[in-house]
Amino acid sequence: MTTSFTPLTVAIGDLVPHPANVRSNSPETYDPENIAHLKASIAVLGLLQPLLVQKLDGKYAVLAGGRRHAALKDLVAEKVEKGFTAKTKVDCRFVPEDCDVTTALSLAENITQAPMNAIDEFEAFARMMEVDGQTPETIAKTFGTTVAAVKGRLRYGLIHPDIRAAARGKVITLDTMKAFAEHPSQEAQREVFEALTKDGGYLQAYTVRQALKSRGVQVSDDIGAFVRADYEERGGAVAADLLEEHSVLEDAALVETILLEKLGAAAEEARMRLGFAWADAMVRYDYATMADYGRVYPGPIEPDEAAQKRIEDITAELEKLQLEMEDEGLEEDAYNALYERVDALEEEARDLQEAYSAEDLARSGVIASWSGGQVTLHVGLVRPEDTVKEEGARGSSAGPTGEEAPDAGEITYPASLAEDLKTERAMALGTAMALHPEATLDLTLFKLVSDVLASGMSVTQAIKIDARKEYRSHAKMDEIDETSLEQVAAAHEALDLSWLDDTRAPADQFAAFRALKAGEKAKLVAYATASTTQSCFARDRSRDSLMHAFEIEIMPDIRAHWTPNAALFNRFKKAWLLKILGDDLGLAQEAVTLASSSKKEIVAFCDKLFAEPFATLTDAQRAAVAAWCPPMMQTAGVACDEAEPAAETPEPDSEVAQAA
């Protein structure tokens, strides 16, 4: 039987709590912070749902709607919102005194008013902005929440419907669904979603974010902001987000092309101004590669009369500025402006008293790279081949080590392939670091402390403790072996991120972080440090003894985190593949047999061989397949060639050599 209750209006001042309300024994329900959003909604929209009341001792007792009643009382007490006084009447429904379902009614209302489903809330916020013309500020006011929280939810409401449906159906987690908001294009989201779920694998937030990174650069990223004007001028596609800062420059290749052009222009300008012989550009300055470069420095010169006069003027101005900076009442902005002026004058004075020699200028150059959100110039660099010539090496055919250039049959690694292999090794190393949290925590703390407290150079340049993820570019990111991605994704899923909430103040997040157990903190630090590992090859003990020893400890075998696949073999020459099969893996007969096959067939054979070593392999061949990698990728000191050879190297006139 359906019970109907008589509608009536009651003054707010005549309302009192009802003892039968099921929340009457939970006073925390009515704390100000718990009803703030409700109060804000009533102030803007009014009371949308009537209260259930019953006559009790001459007053109207609120049987259901206690939180709305508390919000109304607060509005009256604060006297801020017009139209809310003790005499203001609100809609109610009257429950007769002889009704025997009082507690049941109260309980039913409180149970049925469960919190809104998270995805429903995301979609509702998006509709309010798209359809109703609301702004994040007005939505925040309506619901009594922060603008930052609204902005975060708006992004999730515009994720592709298929992905939201997967989250509703518990096919993917809510966190995984949120990861798709990294890219505002629903088409890009759908393509990534389909690609990652085609084999029925478990989808993780980390792998989603990694896949979306190759789909463009956010306009709020420092590189995105730097190239955006040129990018749009060339007609580059922009995936627009409801919130401008989340829009994405979709053509990542065009972004990198423009960035390199701008870096190249900066390097060329410096070359012409300083008189260097050459100029070059790279997105990220690779310290491992640049370790083979030399460097020249300017020496003292005798300034001419005009230069000497300028030096004297600079000295006088510096003395004046120093006095101004000693004023304790100086505003911070004014002090910073004086400091920048002093810095510029001192640099000008140095330039007037120092210069590169003509010989040094003729063999050195400048490289521009992107660092810390700006163009950074590295001047006075000497290429390895120029350094070798200077030291009396064997002429122009000699390499950085002074050895003759390899013959055409020798395996070499083109620069583009070498750069991508460095990226893959960095990913594998990062995975190893994330899987060894205690050791990586020690390394992080050691570098942080020693860089600050010790004198001299940094203990290692291999990791950056500056709270910034390392940018990793790769020509074929969609085709690389996914072992390290899957492992680091699993490490990410194991992190305790309960403290991480963008809707809370940093101080509150910090307090929650501090409450974590030491082991959980170690995992977080290890994962963060692992994200800073730069693209790299095996360390040189003489150049970086710290990371050389550390890598041997945590990653004695890169093959635990990386497997060669078709994407790599496709970039090798046919002769190299046959040489690897015959010389490195001991598969001489197979190499001879495959010599008459197409490169495509050889690549397929190698891909299948490394994916699952054949049952017909000998123990020595199986061990060789399990250990093989390009030699510069294996951890220094445990290189592949230190293991037992899989088979004797064929003589030059052997059948394998002839086939290769």
From TrEMBL:
<dbReference type="InterPro" id="IPR003115">
    <property type="entry name" value="ParB_N"/>
</dbReference>
<feature type="domain" description="ParB-like N-terminal">
    <location>
        <begin position="8"/>
        <end position="111"/>
    </location>
</feature>
<dbReference type="InterPro" id="IPR036086">
    <property type="entry name" value="ParB/Sulfiredoxin_sf"/>
</dbReference>
<dbReference type="GO" id="GO:0007059">
    <property type="term" value="P:chromosome segregation"/>
</dbReference>
<feature type="region of interest" description="Disordered">
    <location>
        <begin position="387"/>
        <end position="408"/>
    </location>
</feature>
<feature type="region of interest" description="Disordered">
    <location>
        <begin position="640"/>
        <end position="660"/>
    </location>
</feature>
<feature type="compositionally biased region" description="Acidic residues">
    <location>
        <begin position="641"/>
        <end position="654"/>
    </location>
</feature>
<feature type="coiled-coil region">
    <location>
        <begin position="304"/>
        <end position="362"/>
    </location>
</feature>
<dbReference type="Pfam" id="PF02195">
    <property type="entry name" value="ParB_N"/>
</dbReference>
<protein>
    <submittedName>
        <fullName>ParB N-terminal domain-containing protein</fullName>
    </submittedName>
</protein>
<keyword id="KW-0175">Coiled coil</keyword>
<dbReference type="GO" id="GO:0005694">
    <property type="term" value="C:chromosome"/>
</dbReference>
<dbReference type="InterPro" id="IPR050336">
    <property type="entry name" value="Chromosome_partition/occlusion"/>
</dbReference>
